[in-house]
Amino acid sequence: MRIFDPHIHMTSRTTDDYQRMHAAGVRAVVEPAFWLGQPRTNVGSFLDYFDALLGWEPHRAAQYGIRHHCALALNPKEANDPRCAEVLTELPRYLLKDSVVAVGEVGYDSMTAEEERAFEAQLALARANDLPVLVHTPHRDKAAGTRRTLDVVRDAGMPPERVLVDHLNELTVGMVADSGCWMGFSIYPDTKMDPDRMVVLLKEYGTDRMLVNSAADWGRSDPLKTREVADAMFAAGFGEDDVDQVLWRNPVAFYGQSGRLSLEAGIEAAPDYAGNTIKRG
Question: Which end of the chain is more exposed for a tag (fewer CB within 10 A), N or C?
């Protein structure tokens, strides 16, 4: 089985997680820029973070046989902090980098005017750089936030097939399906979606334009939730082709629109927990 996690924050995870992910079938990830938990107070801290997503994190992933790409943006939460506004002037030079396959995460957190201005500005950057967009829908008042998200995407002239609207659930999937955008679902231990609920939606809406991610970060989350969805799909009667479409081909198709997606394997040997060399199959 091959798995592509299209939204995971490996900066927050350990190398043990990389090893477990490879053993579960994960061979590629996209790491979108997000809020680190501790508010950043200046543009320089963002630039150091972007540099790590472009350099250190791909190197770390490759040691465990996983290909790492990223999406870069000023995230919705920190778009409200005027100290971070200059990130938008720095982004264009970062969006030229080979391993950047999308602009993201953009969208809403608290549905403020500042968030909307940053959202619109970054949709324009995505169009100017011919990149797809990963959109974060708010955790509160999600239905209203998703409706507004789709309005902003439409008004910006962003082609829906180049937009992935993430963190969806039973209340929001229908409107995104109707919009023509790609549909993203984060599978969490306690919140958002779980594997069984995901299977129900896959039965109802099919497998086209559906992406499943772990969105694993510094909070309670699990980087193996993509594999749990695959196992739940098999248990529910889905075939290997269905699982491969949702867990591999769909993220490849979406991020492949960047023209930068490279799925060559990482290095074929990595240290195990004891420091011994183990071979990758």
Answer: C
DSSP-based three-state secondary structure for 148? helix
Place of tokens 């949709």: 123
State how far the Cα of 8 lies from the Cα of 150, in Å rounded to an integer: 23
Q: Are 146 and 181 in contact (CB under 8 A)?
A: no
SS (H, E, C) 152-212: HHHHCCCCHHHEEEECCCCCCHHHHHHHCCEEEEEECCCCEECHHHHHHHHHHHCCCCEEE
Q: Which amino acid is located at 71 in the chain? A: A
The reported pTM is: 0.92
CA 181, 182, 186, 191 torsion: positive or negative? Answer: positive
Is residue 46 within 8 Å of residue 79, measured between CB atoms?
no
> CA 30, CA 5: separation in Å to the nearest integer?
7
Taking the C-alpha atoms of residue 138 and residue 35, their distance in angstroms, rounded to an integer, is: 13
Per-residue pLDDT reduced to its tens digit, 159-211:
999 999 999 999 999 999 999 999 999 998 776 789 999 999 999 999 999 99
How far apart are alpha carbons 114 and 76 in whole angstroms? 9
Contact by Cβ (8 Å): 106, 135: yes
The answer to whether the CB of 118 falls within 8 A of the CB of 106 is yes
Distance CA 87, CA 32 (A): 15
Model confidence pLDDT, tens digit, residues 233-270: 999 999 999 999 999 999 999 999 999 999 975 444 44
The 3-class SS string of 22-86 reads HHHCEEEEEEECCCCCCCCCCHHHHHHHHHHHHCHHHHHHHCCCCEEEEEECCCCHHHHCHHHCC
